Structure formats: structure tokens, C-alpha cells
Amino acid sequence: MNIKSLLLGSAAALIAVSGARAADAVVVAEPEPAEYVKICDVYGAGYFYIPGTETCLRIGGYIRYDIGVGDVGSFDGATSADHEDGGSNDTFYKHARFSLKTWTGQETELGTLKTYTETRFNFQNNNRDAGALVDPDGTGPLPAVGALNPADNGTVSLNFAWIQLGGLRVGKDESAFDTFIGYAGNVIQDTLVPYGGFDTNVVQYYFDAGNGFSAVISLEEGSGSDTIDSYVPHVVGGVKWTQGWGAVTGVIAYDSNYEEVSGKVRLDVNATDQISLFIMGGYGSDDNLTDTTWAFPAGGRGFYKPWSGNWAVWGGGTYKFNEKTSFNLQASYDEGKNIGIAANVAYDIVPGFTITAEVDYSHLGDDSVSNWTGISAGDDDAIGGMLRFQRSF
């Protein structure tokens, strides 16, 4: 009886333990379905829906590498301090940039809600050394402090950061005096004769009639020494008529600092499928303009009239040899007899990767000292060139 009882008890215990373990078995949860990114084609290629929202997002930008030589425009005066004797030597201008861009779009009951941002990161050899210092006893040159040729990270800049609902736009942009009428051609150095200030905070309203007519009104703050000096903003207004043959555009700007007015008119013509041409003229009053910074020592310039004298003209065009290759030209001239000519050939090696080779010429006219084009004092004529590699995505 004792053995039988022991066996029955052991069997009962095993059953109890097995039941307990069965009750405590781990249950594997069913995997949640993956939420795949959906393509959004409402606003063009490259947009996708941010998961869980109705907002469409696009991320893009470019990586650029410039090599410049000569004495024209942004790469004027590229020099390097000699490590051995402290002298100053001409050298290359080098500049690398990573630009990150974002776009968003969403439909609302008040219209399309859009944003745009662009941030630029730069690494460069500006190569403008401080020059050589001469030993007080005249025995020889000494390296200037900080005159060695540094290659280092340059500026990080927020170039665009705006919000737009319907036709209302607020934020950081470039002036409508330039963006609405258009930049001066498809050349790299398009400001050899400058045509307007750019960076500014804005409150703008855009109107598009849908039949080719559009307009803009923009309240702007300017930048640098041209920011407003009271509560009165700069004001820019513009109208445009666009058709298949091209466009006619006009803009006018009021500078609240000096109570001066500038305007530009532009004609764009699509002559053929391969040839597009433009001509743009500017006129500005300058009675009260008294800028005396290093950029405008002679006075008579401002945020909306940066050219010399009252009037200036820009013209040029693009000829497309084929889908990959184009030739671009721009010529500019102002009342101060400043001349700028820029020409380049742009070639798309593969989609998204372009090499541009440009040659630039500038002539300093009646201005007796340097202006913001970068032409050095006393350089009546200057020539230079740039090779640009750019991967856009």
C-alpha cells in the first residue's frame, strides 16, 4: 500500500506541475503591421507622406566644390602667405559646400500650407592672407600674425526658412526685388554688376490669377547695414505676365531708411526650344543714399540700388546644345561704367552631377575704390575663371 500510494502521489504531483507550467506558458504577441512610407505626388517628384500625418515632405540639396583663379567677383584677391619668408603669393580660391533643403506641403481649408528651408555648410580656402610684415630694422619680411593660409570651416548659414499658407508667406527669404523678377542669368558670377540685396526677413502676399498674371507685395527688413532703423519696413511690389513665349515682369522697392525708390523691368523670351533670352533694366533714385561702409565708400548705393549711378542693365541667355550641355552668357553695365561679362558651359555628366566651366571679365569704371563686386582698388580690368562640380539630389 505504501508503494502504491507513493506512485499515485507522484503521478498526481507531476500532473499538477505540468498543469501549472501550461498555465504559465509565454504567449508570443502578433507582430504589428509595418507602416510603409507612402509616395506623395501632389507637389511633384520626391515627396512622401510623413508617417501618421497628412503632411508631404521632400528632402534634397547639393554638394558643391569650386576652384577659382584670377581676380574677379567672389574669388578676387586669392592669396596665400609664404610659410618660409612671410611673403604673399597668388593662389587658388577653393570652396566646398553642403546645402540641405527641405520642403513640406499639406492641403488645408485655408489653402496649401507649405514650408521651405535651406541651410549651407561651408569649408574653404578664402586665401586672403594678412600680407607680410617688414622687420623694423629693414632686414627682411616677417610673417604677419594669422597670415598663414588657413583652410577651415567657414560659415553655417540659414538661407531660407519660411512658412506659406495660401498666398501669405512669412520668415527668412531673399528679397522679392530679386526672386520675383528673377536672377540675372544662369552664370555663377551673376553680380559683377550687382542687381539687388538678397537676405531678409519678409511678410509677403502672392497672388496668382491662374491665367498668367501674378503679383506680390512684400514687407522686408533688409540685412547688414541696410536693416530698417525704425518700425517702418522696406516695401517691394511686383507684377508679372507669363505666357508660352516668355514673360514680362516689373518690381519696385521703397527703401525706408533713405526714402528712396528703385525699380527693375525684365523681358524673358523663349526664342526656340534651344534658346532663351532675357534683358533687365534697373533705375533708382539716390539723392539721400549716403552709405559709406567699405563696400560703398563713394556713397550712392543701397539695398535696392547697389549698382553705381542711377541706372544699370543686364542681359544674356542660354543655348542648349542637347539635353546634357548648355552655354550660358550674361553681360552687365551701369551708369558708373562698370562692366561685367560671364560665360560658361555646363555639362551634365550623369543626371544630378554637373560640371560648369566659367570665364569672367570685369572692368571697374568711375568708382575710384572697391565695391561689393569684389574688384580690388586700382584693378581697371580683371579676368578670372571657375570650375564647379555639383551633385544635386
Automatic annotation (TrEMBL):
Q: What is this protein called?
A: Porin
Organism annotation: Mesorhizobium australicum
